[in-house]
């Protein structure tokens, strides 16, 4: 399965297009739509390059969600790819969220598991609260 337009739009809405490298709230150099690999201060890209980087970045998260969560629907897949994109594959694989999805993809406790991931650097961030709600809403739509 590949990320659909709802998932891509969700990711883009929270990552926002940044054409010049910046430090995210976690202190990581970032560019485009949340791309971090090899980003250095002063890097610049155009919108087309940002779209290409996002498409490339999504492949690794899609692969993990496909492997770990066979049989889920498109909205569930898109929500989990967005989550994995944001928290990283290691955190996703260790998460109680993933355990709940594997046990029963329709478990309503999954909404709560999304909401628990609202911190960066130990601080609760309003943007992460909004993102987790949007991901949970997409997952259950």
From TrEMBL:
<comment type="similarity">
    <text>Belongs to the glycosyl hydrolase 24 family.</text>
</comment>
<dbReference type="GO" id="GO:0003796">
    <property type="term" value="F:lysozyme activity"/>
</dbReference>
<dbReference type="InterPro" id="IPR051018">
    <property type="entry name" value="Bacteriophage_GH24"/>
</dbReference>
<dbReference type="InterPro" id="IPR033907">
    <property type="entry name" value="Endolysin_autolysin"/>
</dbReference>
<dbReference type="InterPro" id="IPR034690">
    <property type="entry name" value="Endolysin_T4_type"/>
</dbReference>
<dbReference type="GO" id="GO:0031640">
    <property type="term" value="P:killing of cells of another organism"/>
</dbReference>
<keyword id="KW-0081">Bacteriolytic enzyme</keyword>
<dbReference type="GO" id="GO:0042742">
    <property type="term" value="P:defense response to bacterium"/>
</dbReference>
<protein>
    <recommendedName>
        <fullName>Lysozyme</fullName>
        <ecNumber>3.2.1.17</ecNumber>
    </recommendedName>
</protein>
<keyword id="KW-0326">Glycosidase</keyword>
<dbReference type="InterPro" id="IPR002196">
    <property type="entry name" value="Glyco_hydro_24"/>
</dbReference>
<dbReference type="InterPro" id="IPR023346">
    <property type="entry name" value="Lysozyme-like_dom_sf"/>
</dbReference>
<dbReference type="GO" id="GO:0009253">
    <property type="term" value="P:peptidoglycan catabolic process"/>
</dbReference>
<dbReference type="Pfam" id="PF00959">
    <property type="entry name" value="Phage_lysozyme"/>
</dbReference>
<dbReference type="GO" id="GO:0016998">
    <property type="term" value="P:cell wall macromolecule catabolic process"/>
</dbReference>
<keyword id="KW-0378">Hydrolase</keyword>
<keyword id="KW-0929">Antimicrobial</keyword>
<dbReference type="InterPro" id="IPR023347">
    <property type="entry name" value="Lysozyme_dom_sf"/>
</dbReference>
<keyword id="KW-1035">Host cytoplasm</keyword>
